[in-house]
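Quarterly update from the structural biology core.
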Amino acid sequence: MTLNAATVGTTRRQPELAGQTVVVIGGSAGIGLETARRARADGADVVLTARNSERLQRAAAELDARSSAVFDATDPAALERFFSDLPEPVDHVMVTAGRPHYARLADIDLMQARRAFDENLWLPIDVARHAVGKVRPGGTLLFMSGTGARRPRVGLTLTSIATAALPALTANLALELAPIRVNLIAPGFVDTPLSASLLGDQLDNRRDQLRATLPIGRVVGPADVAALAVHLMTNTALTGATYDIDGGQQLVPEG
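Predicted structure, tokenized:
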């Protein structure tokens, strides 16, 4: 069949997030920023938050964000103020704030450990509490976990707790907050500025190792995770589940 201009015009995909608002907590870099970019390209207005004022300002300007807010998301009072100041119900909230905490048991710093639990466990709970009345029915809460700590290793005590707990939390919140949908994204290694800061001069070696061993033959990037995140926002049949995105990392022996 020959496609003429009229046919192409009628089959062009419409932006699935047109007229919707996406809030990204931790949206100034990495997966959060890339998700905001993809949501914006799909027609959404975006609201960005982060702790780093300079990075957030650049991201908000790039995306012509509806608004932005600088604060520490693990500060309960600041998080409450942010949600109370949102002018009207929003459609989707994604939380990417936080980072994994690696330490042997003997080296665990209790203050850092408490912050790790605040970022990885209490923050999703706090966001879920504030989402009621602010996220429209049928909208989405998206949280982040990981797959790496599913294999026991020395130094993963704290991270493995969050990895095990978040799928259960997500499933329970999906029931309690319905019809708001709640889902969890669990990446493996993703090539982000955070990964670079964690690995330092070992980053290139890790990239080479993954290219050689992953079934997909390449390293997972922020755009891969962003595509999944937007799909979870737009597919209204999905709630209460954990979605792995690691390029098959769990399928191969550890190097």
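Residues 16-243 form a domain with the Rossmann fold fold (CATH 3.40.50.720).
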